[in-house]
Amino acid sequence: MIKKIGDTIIFKNNPTIIAGCSVVGPKEKNSLLNKYFDKIMQNDICGEKTYEKAERKFMEHAITGAIKKAGLTTNDIDFLISGDLLDQIISSNFVARILNTSFIGIFGACSNMSLSLALGACIIEAGVANYVACATSSHFSTAERQFRFPLELGCQRPPTAQWTVTASGCSILSNNQKGHKIIGATIGKVVDFGINDVNNMGAAMAPAAADTLDRLFKDTKTTPKDYDLIVTGDLGKLGSELLLDLLEQKGYSNIQNHRDCGQIIYSDTQKSYMGGSGCGCGASVFNSYFLDKLTLGEYKKIIFMATGALLSPLSSQQGESIPSIAHAIIIEKGY
User: What's the pTM?
Assistant: First the structure.
């Protein structure tokens, strides 16, 4: 039975993550975490005519790869929960049409990975599914020309910018007890601090991350020290610094166990400025590096929280600020 304490869902039957898969592009091949990724594409167009069609290939490979690693077939999957950054979540929609499984499309922007995991865990806990695939993707070339500028312009990037990761990640959730356990989830609230710079996503999303973590700690009567790691999806360097500052204002000082996927995926020589961003950032790093560390026993209990900037090209053109959201899940190593 699902139990809710404050804003946090507690799972008594512990839905489990039994497999994860990450597929990345050529820039990510040269990143600090390249040995952890399951599949590295040799180019970012994947033999397709457009980058949008290429992004679908990344997601398709991530989903089918995770299903294979779980020892399953697509016929075993009861639900696919997926979203992406493109208008009408077309990457997810078009991948779902070839997988022939019940599909739940979501849009949480870059928070899609943790949102899909939270929703998938609820479905497993409710007893209406045996296996759920949770996925998301992003692509530098599709996101840049949708939210910022045409690539052909070669616009100079400001120092606060992040690099949209070309990648996809997928987790398979199960109702058996043999995987890493999802023991709780805090669903985010929309927070807006008035940031309107589309090249400063970290500053826009950090307040939402601080709000979700504060509510999670209060609901569960825990502190940051009760977790081996607090992992965020794509705040980058600036957003991570702002998160720690905001948490200190809320009474959580000297946090040493925070890691951000966007901050660790690229090396300093890769000119990613503030680090990685995009749905595929947290999805690929979580489903490779952090799941591997849990399996090896290096971490026993972590929080994974992806953050999303809920803007659209139209809202930016109309001068709107950037509302943001963050969803967090609590994961324990399987035994």
Answer: 0.96
